[in-house]
């Protein structure tokens, strides 16, 4: 197994998550199975490496979970070429242009998780608490990755034992995919193993950039809602989801931030709302890896000199405005007016409106751009550095998943929906306008012919609406529509019912004859 460590531990030495470790590491070339796994520090280092590997897939996680929905699809207002990403909102991915190749490269991380699980189960070096915490993390992360694979490809290859080599090349494994039902069974087994390993430990032992029992519980809620709605689990699965989410609610030591923008603020990382996030750290990792956020979501500085904000102030004259990047994902311009109600703080906390001055002195609305993650300006830099943490799970998500479980069980979801809405509008406004914005009163002409959301008359529309407003850019919307059912996918996106899963790239099929192309492609 020597090769397993050569590349992996080299990465660990570079990606420490800013944690100090007192590892007495041997040269990478000498690391092997024979001289590793000999101390608690080595297990800790490997655990850090696992989280670093998963973080490397953050952009793929976004792509699988959001762009095929209804958020993007307009041409970039600055004139950039979209370079193929327009195929996601247009849903024109196919066997030639799959968008994501080699199953998102998730199997490399799965292979290392398999190794961690085996070695942790075998070791006698660790005390029981430390051993169980590592196992809770590893089983939970493996379930999380397989859940992405299940939702994106359906039938996928199941591998639960480590293989030789420094990575698991699924295209050369020559193993057939397992049915989606078996993949779901494995996900649930791993979730149970994670919950049991964590036991009564609800701590965030290594910080919220690491997996925890809370992360497993919200994953459990989401998984059982999916299996209940999409795989025939029904009421029993909804009840299991509800119980997991209530366990999290009671024991996770979580609460909503008072202000929506505080959740994402650079100076407020690992706050009370965050359950699990990918950490960005100077000289180590920026959002979505290698400037992927900057090079997909941020306007270019040069052309912003031609535009102004809603007050008519040119962007280049706004104090602190030093955004500089490349726009390939253009948010649909109508989201600015048709998604958020008046006085919903999530509008300006999510999108920045771009205007252009006209000859008569008036200003004309052009388009919005992503404004949820604003980065920071480091000392000595003249532009923004995208060092925000990227949330995977947060407490608002848990509340709305719980609302969904309750609604499916015929129970009242008002408490959870309105907790999220009250934070969005502010307590004073919310309490004074409950007859307009509190569930189930948010309805009326605003939703007539609205292309993105519906009124509170339908509880599922109410929950979907709240999730759209809350989770822009967090990789949720496509998965949400898929979970709620094909009728919502077809209503709100351009997708065809026969092509809701993702195609497999040609190289993977050629190199692994046991793999079959996804139905529909």
Textual characterization of the structure:
The chain is mainly α. It has a domain at 280-388. The protein contains 20 helices and 6 strands. It has a two-stranded antiparallel sheet. The longest helix has 26 residues, at 128-153. The radius of gyration is 23 Å and the shape is globular.
Distance between the termini: 37 Å
Determine the mean pLDDT. Answer: 93
Please list the strands of the largest sheet in the order they lie side by side: 1-3
Report helical residue fraction.
40-55%
Return residue spans where pLDDT drops below 50 for at least 5 consecutive residues: 1-7, 13-31
Shape: globular
**What structural class results from the helix and strand content?**
mainly alpha
Q: Given the structure, what is the number of helices? A: 20
Give the SSE order as H and E letters: HHHEHHHHHHEHHEHEEEHHHHHHHH
Strand content: 5-15%
Report on the biggest sheet: 2 strands, antiparallel
**C-alpha Rg (nearest Å):** 23 Å
- Beta strands, count: 6
Protein name: SusD family outer membrane lipoprotein NanU
Keywords: Cell outer membrane, Lipoprotein, Membrane, Signal
Subcellular location: Cell outer membrane
InterPro entries: SusD-like_N, SusD_RagB_dom, TPR-like_helical_dom_sf
Spell out the key features of this protein:
single chain, about 525 residues, mainly alpha, two-stranded antiparallel sheet, 20 helices
What's the short version?
The protein is mainly alpha-helical and about 525 residues long. The chain contains 20 helices and 6 strands.
């Amino acid at each position: 197994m020597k090769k397993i460590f050569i590349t992996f531990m080299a990465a660990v030495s570079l990606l420490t998550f800013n944690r100090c470790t007192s590892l007495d590491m041997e040269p990478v070339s000498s690391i092997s199975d024979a001289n590793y796994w000999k101390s608690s520090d080595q297990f800790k280092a490997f655990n850090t490496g696992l989280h670093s590997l998963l973080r490397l897939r953050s952009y793929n996680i976004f792509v699988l979970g959001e762009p095929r929905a209804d958020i993007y699809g307009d041409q970039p207002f600055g004139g950039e070429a979209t370079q193929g990403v327009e195929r996601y909102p247009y849903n024109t991915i196919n066997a030639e242009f799959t968008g994501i190749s080699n199953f998102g490269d998730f199997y490399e991380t799965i292979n290392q998780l398999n190794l961690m699980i085996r070695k942790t189960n075998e070791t006698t070096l660790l005390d029981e608490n430390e051993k169980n915490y590592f196992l809770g993390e590893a089983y939970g992360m493996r379930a999380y990755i397989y859940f992405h694979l299940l939702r994106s490809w359906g039938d996928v290859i199941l591998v639960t034992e480590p293989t030789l080599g420094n990575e698991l090349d699924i295209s050369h494994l020559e193993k057939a995919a397992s049915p989606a039902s078996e993949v779901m069974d494995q996900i649930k087994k791993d979730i149970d193993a994670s919950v049991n390993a964590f036991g009564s430990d609800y701590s965030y032992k290594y910080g919220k950039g690491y997996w925890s029992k809370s992360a497993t519980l919200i994953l459990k809620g989401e998984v059982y809602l999916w299996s209940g709605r999409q795989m025939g689990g029904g009421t029993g699965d909804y009840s299991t989801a509800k119980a997991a989410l209530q366990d999290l609610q009671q024991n996770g030591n979580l609460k909503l931030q008072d202000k929506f923008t505080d959740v994402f603020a650079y100076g407020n990382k690992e706050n009370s709302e965050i359950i699990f996030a990918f950490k960005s750290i100077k000289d180590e990792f920026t959002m979505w890896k290698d400037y992927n956020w900057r090079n997909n979501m941020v306007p270019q500085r040069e052309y912003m000199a031609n535009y102004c904000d809603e007050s008519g102030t040119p962007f280049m004259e706004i104090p602190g405005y030093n955004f500089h990047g490349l726009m390939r994902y253009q948010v649909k311009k109508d989201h600015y007016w048709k998604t958020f109600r008046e006085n919903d703080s999530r509008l300006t906390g999510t999108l920045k409106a771009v205007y252009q001055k006209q000859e008569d002195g008036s200003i004309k609305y052009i388009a919005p751009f992503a404004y949820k993650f604003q980065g920071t300006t480091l000392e000595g830099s003249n532009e923004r550095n995208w060092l925000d943490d990227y949330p995977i799970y947060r407490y608002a998500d848990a509340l709305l998943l719980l609302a969904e479980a309750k609604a499916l069980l015929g129970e009242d979801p008002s408490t959870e929906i309105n907790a999220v809405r009250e934070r969005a509008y502010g307590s004073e406004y919310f309490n004074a306008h409950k007859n307009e914005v509190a569930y189930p009163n948010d309805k009326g002409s605003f939703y007539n012919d609205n292309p993105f959301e519906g009124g509170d008359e339908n509880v599922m529309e109410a929950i979907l609406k709240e999730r759209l407003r809350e989770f822009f850019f967090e990789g949720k919307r496509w998965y949400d529509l898929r979970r709620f059912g094909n009728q919502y996918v077809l209503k709100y996106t351009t997708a065809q019912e026969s092509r809701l899963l993702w195609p497999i790239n040609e190289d993977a099929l050629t190199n692994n004859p046991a793999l079959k192309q996804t139905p529909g492609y």
